[in-house]
Amino acid sequence: MTSLVIATLDSYVSFSVARHLARSRGTEAFGWLLLGALTMGIGVWSMHFIGMLAFDIGTPLGYDAWLTLLSVAPIVVAAGAVMWMVSHGAMPPWRLLLCGVLLGGGIGAMHYTGMFAMRMDPGIVWNYWRVALSVLFAIAGSTVALGVAMRVTSDRQRTYRATLRWVAATLMGCSIAGMHYLAMSAAEFPFGSWCLSTNSALHGRWLGLIIAIISLCMLLFTLSMAVLRQRIQRRESRMDAALTRAQNALTFQAFHDGLTGLPNRTYLLDTLRQLLKDSREPIAVLFVDLDGFKAINDSFGHHAGDEFLRSVAHALRASVRERDIVARFGGDEFVLVLRAYRNTDNLNAICQQVLDLVSRPVVVAGHTVTVSPSIGVAVAPADGEDADTLMRNADTAMYTVKELGKSGFRFFERSMHTLARERLTLSQELREALHLGAIDVHYQPQNDLRTGKLAGLEALARWNHPTRGMISPTIFVPIAERAGLVAALDAHVLQTVIEHLKCWKARGFEPPYVAINLSPQELREPMFADNVHETVVFNGIDPARIRFEITESTAMHNPEVTLRQLRQLRQKGFLLSIDDFGTGYSSLSYLRQLPTGTVKIDQSFIQGSSLNREDREITEAIVALSKKLHLETVAEGVESEAQATWLKEIGCDVAQGFFFARPMEKNELLRHLGVVDITDQVPC
After folding, report:
1. What topology does CATH give the domain 439-673?
2. What is the pLDDT of residue 648?
3. What whole-number percentage of the chain has pLDDT above 90?
4. Which DSSP category does 234 fall into?
5. What is the rounded CA–CA span in Å between residue 655 and residue 638?
6. pLDDT grade, residue 579 (50/70/90)?
7. Residue 548 φ/ψ, nearest 5 degrees
8. CA-to-CA separations, 669 to 336, 456, 515, 664, in angstroms, rounded
9. CA separation for the pair 223, 288 (Å, rounded)
10. Alpha-carbon dihedral of residues 600, 601, 607, 611, nearest 10 degrees?
11. Is the pTM of this model over 0.85?
């Protein structure tokens, strides 16, 4: 029983060593190979001599030292060869059988060499059928045990690895022990046989005990090394897994947007370059910009803006296929890369789907908000064969959409490059014109409809370009917004108006007020009210002579900041007016809080009043509402006597438009109003 336990334990440890050998390389692999071969060889060797302790023929037994030492060699060599083959890849049947033959043969050679070491006289009589049977048993058992051991590495048997390893070790142990006892049954000792090695150093029961102790120590040492190595491997595996996770996280952060989880600009450009290099399929780039997103940030805070961007990212991802790329390019800009979009009609349908999904109302921070995307489209290779060109052309097409009214999509056209260069040139020339003070201010009178007298003036910026002639504000004001020149333009207009008011005052002319448009950028400046009041008072102008106009949409952007700024302006004596009333979406309760005394009806309602009833009814409703709120009403865009008469009948207070006068430069205005004679010298 002891010999069977030793054989089984030896097999288990040997299989463990073989597993570590398969995972090692170089010097480490050689070390495990040597250790495994010695462990199995000494284990089988010790099993043999422990088994011989159970053998008794009535005469003392001993073993020749040199033959005994030689007997361990076959099993060590065979074990080393088998471990080397097992550790090198898959085991086809022929290779498994070869391993079984080597191992079984090594066990048999070890046993019979050990038997010859007894040097019996007369010699042992062998039953060669049983000898052959013992060797075949060793080969068959080794083959089966190795086959079971090899299944331990199969993924399908992952749950049963420990059980299979013990089953394989038990089969191997039984093969070793079975071979020994079958071989012993094949030996016949003639009556009177005597062991010639009885007087050698290797005899008696102490021999078996010493060998058993040496074998157990060897097995425990090897098992300890295997367990230690396994723990080190597990720790290394955990460290590798943690390092892999960290690397994956860093890679994800490097190539993805932290807010939306979408690929970022770096990933987009790298992937697009690779696609254009390797792919033969058509590729389209959609550059998406969200119109009005800044208002969400200003009105409800950045947390709401972040939540909205995540909803847009989800909508964009849902609008295209899994293989298409959706990336956040930066801020409120997104880019879609469509692969194999089939044809232009399909591309049109995809763009419309993006428009529809992104334009849907979204609830963020308890508020329902909506933005509309402007989409520029460029396709490869027609609009560019490299990523930078495609992106640039898609961006150009997107800005064309914005100039045409936003909320839509346009395909890139070569003519857009000319427009883009034109915008850049105008931006540079506008900056220079502001620096040189070349932007003039014209004035359009506003008339009291009840008395017909002058109610006030509206200041309008005009740019008389030295080579291009008069450039419309509808062209240069958006350019100023994109170039960050709005604040400089507004400051120039205010300073020019102040200079004109000073000049007119010296000539004895003081208009009731001059209306000046106020941009959202100025309202975001914390010290704007204090600075403009200081400038006006320093120049000797009464703040009540200046009326600041803000659009209805501006009033609703970041309402808390806007309300605070407007109250400061009103407290300092300035007049305030809501411009383009009726074209935006306003809360009446909020408008009631604004310190404004005037609402200005947008010209689209006045000009449409003669064509449809809806515009007339809206205008009449605005006038009626203003009277209820004790607000003065100003109608702009009056072009006929019929419109002026109708406005007077419904109770509108003030009107301006081409019917009364076109915008005029300052000296022409004075002549129009009869302040100076037309033959006078230029007064200012």
Report:
1. TIM Barrel (3.20.20)
2. 92
3. 12
4. H
5. 7
6. confident
7. -90, 130
8. 53, 12, 15, 6
9. 65
10. -170
11. no
